[in-house]
């Protein structure tokens, strides 16, 4: 990181969250293999699960609202240089398939109307592409809403990142960090017991 010197004879410093840059994974130059995600989830990634990681920031608030009656919120801002709060959700997807990406919308929160979710997907070479998804976090409170439908690879090769930064015309004072669900569209309607990856 920055000017840190990586001694090729010493123990490795590894980013446990994997590499999501647009260029080659820098770890490959040092050790010949790619960074991999260590904190993933197969079904539930909420604020108490390994697949959900909340980072930094002095102004987090925990609410008894949302999926499983809990969620986190942070004050929304429009200037990216002032960002202090973000979180990452990482699913483990059993199959390469088309997935509905759904977020849970809690009730009773003065949430942002233009929160920006960043979906990153790794390719076979270990580089990633990012898609920004603008979401009104006030739609259908108390339910999951579909924010994107996309072909996704199996394994832990995608992540969803949400920051406290919102679009310039957004209203609402908070960005809400709650559960996310990846549902395989080919199996979603077969059975009510069809497992989904909930983040």
TL;DR of this structure?
The protein has one helix at residues 26-31, and strands at residues 52-55, 61-63, 71-75, 86-89, 97-105, 115-122, 128-135, 143-152, 158-166, 174-177, 180-184, 197-198. It is mainly β.
Verbal overview:
A hairpin with a 5-residue loop joins strand 6 and strand 7. The longest helix is centred in the first third of the chain and has 6 residues. The C terminus is likely disordered. A five-stranded antiparallel sheet has the order 1-4-9-6-7, with no helix packed on it. It has a four-stranded antiparallel sheet with strand order 8-5-11-12, with no helix packed on it. The chain has one helix and twelve strands. The protein has 199 residues and is mainly beta.
Please give the structural blueprint.
Elements: H1 26-31, E1 52-55, E2 61-63, E3 71-75, E4 86-89, E5 97-105, E6 115-122, E7 128-135, E8 143-152, E9 158-166, E10 174-177, E11 180-184, E12 197-198
Antiparallel strand pairs: 1-4, 2-3, 3-10, 4-9, 5-8, 5-11, 6-7, 6-9, 11-12
Strand order of the largest sheet: 1-4-9-6-7
Overall radius of gyration: 17 Å
Structural class: mainly beta
The beta-strand count equals 12
Q: Provide a count of the helices.
A: 1
Low-confidence stretches: 190-199
Mean pLDDT: 81
Distance between the amino and carboxyl termini: 29 Å
Tell me about the largest β-sheet: 5 strands, antiparallel
